[in-house]
Amino acid sequence: MTTQNTVHDGALLQMSGIVKEFPGVRALGGVDLDVRAGEVHCLLGQNGAGKSTLIKVLSASYQPDDGTIEWEGEYVSLTTPVAAMKLGISTIYQELDLVPDLTVAENIYLGHELSKGGFTQRAAAASNTRAIMERLGHPEIAPSRTVGSLSPAGQQIVSMARALSHDTKLLILDEPSAVLDQGEVHNLFRVIRGLTDEGVAIIYISHRLEEIREIGDRITVLKDGRTVATGLDAKVTPTKELIQLMTGRSIEYVFPPRPDTPRDRGEAVLEVRDLALAGVFSGVDLTVHAGEIVGLAGLVGAGRSEIIETVYGARKATGGTVTVDGTKISRGSVVAAVKAGVGLAPEERKSQGLLLDQAVYRNITISSLSRFSRSGFLDSADERRRSDELVTSLDVRPKGVSRAVRTLSGGNQQKVVLARWLLRDCRVLLLDEPTRGVDVGARSEIYNLIRRLADSGVAVVVVSSEVEEVLGLADRVLVVREGAVVHDAPATELDESKVLDLVMEGRVA
Amino acid sequence: MTDTAGVSPSASQPEPTSDSKSVEEAAARAGQQQGGLALLRTSAGRNLGLVLALVLVCIAGFVTSGSQFANLDNALTILRLASVIGVVSIGMTFVIIGGGIDLSVGAIVALASVWCTTLATQRMAEDTHWTMMVFSALAVGLGCGLVNGLLISYGGVVPFIATLAMLAAARGYAEILAQRRTQLVSVSEFLDFFRIDVLGVPMLVLIFVVVSAIGWVVLNRTTFGRRTLAVGGNPEAARLAGINIKRHTVMLYALLGLCCGIAALMITARTTTGASTHGLLYELDAIAAVVIGGTLLSGGRGTIVGTVLGVLIFGVLNNVFVQNDLSSSAQAVAKGVIIVAAVLLQQRFARQSSSSP
After folding, report:
1. Which chain A residues in 318-347 lie under 8 Å from chain B, judged by CB atoms?
2. According to its record, how does it sit in the membrane (chain B) (predicted)?
């Protein structure tokens, strides 16, 4: 790739000294970014470093308070999102903004429908859509399909197709891989390479370094709303250096040590026998002992999340039994599962786990209200006190249990969910993607926390798309493929490539 | 939203959907520093606004009607009239905070009032005790509420449709029972009870005060109230936290039904009649009072104090219109305008405090 001293040559986009302030806070305090045609420019930074604010400035959702933007060598001011789009800047946000009940073609041309005299030209839209899909390497996605019936990966392709239906020169991808599994990520990369070959520039935001290594050309690192490094070579810059730039301190991606001897296992706490959910998975056996962490690895859609949601009773099993401490739990009853001491930290933290507008302490105590009530009346002072202890011991920042959970970062929100089940003294804790959207620094804290929980005698089940995470954290790993457990082994006997083989092929190659 | 910067600290919590967390964190910090401004978006601050509105309406009444408006008798008249709808509104507050809506409240009031004044009920009341009438009205209200709740929770019927059906059915049944005639109350003990003044406060007003007080305690100090906020704020999270949201929803509608039963007794006593025309458009008045009281129609947030203020504002406004000999049609137009204005304001607040441009 190119070197650092030719910054201005062929710069498609040049942002300098961008400042964006909100009352009482400087979200961006002078950010520089230059992007060249045909490159994949990676934006790195912890949660809150200003990445999202920066791309919102670029897509004209926000107006910067200071700084300049040059586009193809000319100063521009991006006043409205439509103006940005007209220049050729398209953004694909983390949360996809598609209309699930409309077809692929309708979604792609939403807002700029092909029409003649007010009548939509469906045939033209369909054939154009087909052409775009072919360009993206996904001719199998038919223009007439409803978007809601597509997988997350498919939906993302539709989002990209929509961007390409405009004359896009710069495509911004905000954590595109968060909803994808490994196979789909490779597919995404293929699409990205195709686009850069055509001269489209990509701004790629991701927490996953290995992805940046694979797809990126250059890296810009943001920290606390400032550019701390720019033009770094994505292939060769040492990980240590990147982490140091992002965090200001040097940390490694660390997992807590697992007890080295196969522990004198506690009694079996969670026993799942022959569990089935029609059409999704069947014949799942799972035993988790006190103090043990069991990981479930597999592709998105293999049934991992469904398995633990069924164990929890959030989905009603069509066969099999779930037993906690010898007590059978009635099918499809979350209430019964919680009563038996099972807790779930769901995959979609914001939509499934938290009451975003309510105070931290209320989110923590919501599953243990009976403990704080006397004949129905709540002792709020006690709630706050207990929550405060937990928040302190888990190091949730910023401190203070009365603020709305919405104001916390992803990692701290996850700690609040964990605190909820800590307070309840869970016997079994089910964690679905515990580190999604959590930045590198906070990750190891969460890993340590999970290990501490296990050490205190809780039986833990972890689901993750990141094989590395499952292998690093769990004592035992179950590999799930197409709705069945295909492998069950101690984590130390597996490595990433073995798991991937199992996931893809169903056997060790 | 280029103007976000100048509005209030609430404006600076920009993206719930993205990860501009430092902004949010810092905004929260800023909110603490500028406590005065932050107050404006707390429920206490909003209620302050409502008090101001109430004062304005009262001033309007005083300016237009002078001492005819500002005297104790008139004040008690306003309160007496507002109390009936007030009791319904308290129940409605819970249902709306819990993420639901109930269009059938007026019809339930009519049915309960007719039921407790049928010849059979009154004869039974005379034979046994006048509270038989009270029991029958409460039972009818509770029963209708339960049916609503069960249909919505376990039948999977959306609240709008389920309660719309109840609206039609309950009022129709009330007409059948009463044969479209107004039924006079002949049980004098019943009427006497509701005519008692406690320290100058009419019984109807007292009932409203007691129901509001209980409502406040239940919403703010009990597990039931906390769960109501959770169920309305994020039903999926509440379910996964182990709350039985179906049962809770049934209880919310049953509670509102019970409030309708109480309101039916109040209007029956006030008019000394039971009629299938009682409670017409109560659903509109109750929802309006709840919404201008600051409760989010989407659920998860709301206050009893706000609802009480909403009820009072409408009560005083009605009185001002009557004092000035304006028609009820003009009142209806004004009510419509106020509701829309309140919702528009509320949405502005919601946008500023939590959502993206």
Report:
1. 334-335, 337-339, 344, 346
2. Multi-pass membrane protein
